[in-house]
Each structure stands twice: as structure tokens, then as C-alpha cells.
Model the fold of this input.
Amino acid sequence: MAVTVILPGWLLLCITAQAAEFQAGIGRVIITPQTPMWMSGYAARTHPSDGLLQDLWAKALAIEDGQGGRVVIVTTDLIGLPREISQKVAARLATKHGIPRAQLVLNASHTHGGPAVWPGIRVLFDLNPDELRVVTEYAQKLTEDLVAVVSAALADLAPVRISFGHGSAGFAVNRREPVPGGMRIGVNPEGPVDPAVPVVNIATPDGRPRAVLFGYACHNTTLGGDCTKINGDYAGFAQSELEKACPSTTAMFLMLGGADQNPHPRGTVELAAQHGKSLADEVRRVLGGRLQPVRPPIRTAYEVVNLDLAPHDRAAFEAEAQGPDRFRQRRARLMLEAYDQGRPVRQVPCPVQVVRWNDDLALVALGGEVVVDYPLRLKREFGSNVIVAGYSNDVMCYIPSRRVLREGGYEAVESMIYYGQPGPFAENVEEAVISACRRLLKQTGAEPVGAFRPLPRPSQPAPTIPP
Done:
């Protein structure tokens, strides 16, 4: 598709000068399973995948600022990347390309239409030897693919300009529905949501689109456990819509802090496509508007914070192991094994990462399934030009806020069974995560609200973007 960019001469010179300050490269690889295999996300499934709705992709965006700053962002159409895979990929890339851990962001869309990513959420599965071989081989191939896609992005570096804008989508709804005696997964229109659709545009110096990185805080669960065909859910449809509209663009979906958010309505392929199209349309609208230039330098920071769990004892798991629930039995076996080895699970390591571009934009990437309270709080503290992603670098369990923890329900309690964690977090979980975010934001130069400039309102027209 031809792209027409209409710019006054002085603005073109400014954009060209700005573009020389960044180089970016893009890589992409299909990660669709080549054989039927167990899918992840729903405990109710009773058989492996039996077809294909959409290919799944891993996509990498490498950005260098010419001053020694660099970041590589990898998006994947997967339920999540467990620590075992993320650590291997990071180690391989450190050796092969000299990439420090703080410069590598690994994000998963959390589609419930993808394969099991072993050993993530392993309590869901009771695999026979052949099934275990299939998921293990997929994990090994995935590791190789992630290293290869980053290598491809680094080999593709070319001058670009980067800009940022805000959009909004409305199909996410808070799913924590109050009922007598607690919370259930349902529809709660009164619950907190984050409608923001952040859009990062990567374009050549003359304005041709190369990549667009966009996000939304909502589970990829339009399709339920009765769907056993591989698919990327609404995020997969959104990416394909954008790439069909502009074939020169690689569209990359970043899963934000939407662990307690579901698409609404949901349940059919048509609805997944509808939500994907509405999200893609909003991204295109933002790209056609006034975007804020993003400037160097790139600063990065990374740490792993240990989150305390509520107290537990061996007796509880001995009783659970004798109970009727097969998932609790599997969880209990893991916990009793840890007790037997003298290392009962008392904390959960959670990666926290910050990538910051000057005073223009910051990305906070958190491990785990992060509920919406986290992005809402961090944007209140540090401004709307902070993108807060969950599902990054390790998806080891839900990360509830203090409010969600006190309310109970699936995100706070029951989900920990399927993740093989001993039980809920201690009440200091939110402050431990927020304190780590503050440390890393300040380490990269960010300050509380006021440091980030509001979006500009230039008098000149924006570049023309194809509809």
C-alpha cells in the first residue's frame, strides 16, 4: 500500500533530525504449534487443540538511541512466558548480543486460545508421557524462536522517528461481581476499569509506518474454554486488522494491567473479531491525530521483588491432598514436596522493569497477572504518559491489589491453586510492588506527576496516515 505523507518543509526537517536520534529494527516469527497440543487458560478443557483460527506470532522491536541506550520489546500471542523460558532467553541474548536484562521486555497477550507454555500454570494439566513430550518440545522451540526474533530485529536497525498518543476503548468490563458472601467472575459495570489505549508509532524519517506498539487492559478471553482452535482472541484480530490496513506496519499488542477485566460481550468468534476491529480502529484514529514526539535517551532498570505470602502450614496441604478436587490435589503435592525439601514457599519473586524515553514516555512492565488498580494508581502518581503492562517477563500468578486481596474471590485466592502457589499474598503485596515501581522510575529519572509533559497541541497538521 502506498503511503502519502503531507508535511510542511520545516516540519519535515525537524522530523528527519529527530529520526536520526533513534534506530529501530523489527523481527517476527510464527509460533503456532505444528501439532495438536493442550491449550492453556481454561481448566474445563478436556482435549488438546483441534484446529486453527489464527496464527500466533512473536514480534520483536529493537530501539537504539545513539547514546548507548537500547531496549528490545518482544510481544507474544501466548498465555504467558514462565520464568524458566524468560531466563533462558535473556541469558542467551546476553551472551549473543550483550543485552543486559534491563533492556529486554518479554510480554504475553494472555490469549486463552494458545498452547500450554510449559511449565507455566502446570497444575491445569495431568499429562501422559507423549503429551509431556509435546509441550516440552514446544517450549524448547519457543525459546529458540524468541532468541531468533530478537536477533532479526537487531539486524534490521534503521533510522526512525518515534511518537506517542492516547486512545480509549470501551469493551473491557470489570469482572469482579459482588454476590452474597463474596465475589464471582461476572460483570460489574461499577468496578474500576482502565479504558486507555496507548499507541507508540515507529516511522521512517519520511513518515512511512514501520511498527505500531499498542496496548489495552483486558483479558483475551472473548472465546471460552469450549473453543479448542488455536487463536489470539481480540488482540490477534486487532493486530491482523492493522497489518491488513497498512502492510508496511508490524502491529504489536502489549497486554496491560487487566487481570480483573474481561471483554464484554463475549463468547463467539464474531465478538472476538468485533472487539479486535474496534481496538484497531481506535489505534488508527490515534495514528491519524496529533502525536507527541518521543526523544532520547533511553534509560532502563530492572529488579526482582520478593512478595510475601500469607502464612500457611503443612497440615493444610496434607488435608487438601486427600480432598476431591484434582487441581487442589496437584497443588498440594507441589507444596508438600517443597515442605519435604525444607523450602516451603513463603514468597513469590516478581520482576519489575522500567523503560523510559527522556521525559516523554515510560513503560512499567510487571510480572504476573496485574489487576487494574496498579496502572490506575501509577498513572495517578506519575502521569498519563506511563504505560503499565502486566504479563511481562514471568507470569507466575495473579498480583492482586490490597483492595482485591481483602475482597477475596478468584483473582485473590482461587487462582493461586491453578498457578501452584500455596495461597493468597500477605496484605503488603500492593505496597511492595508500588515501592519497586517508584524506585525504578526514579532511578531512570522520573518524578511524580508534573515531570511528564501533557500532549502538545501543535498548530500544524499531523502527518497523513492511511485510513
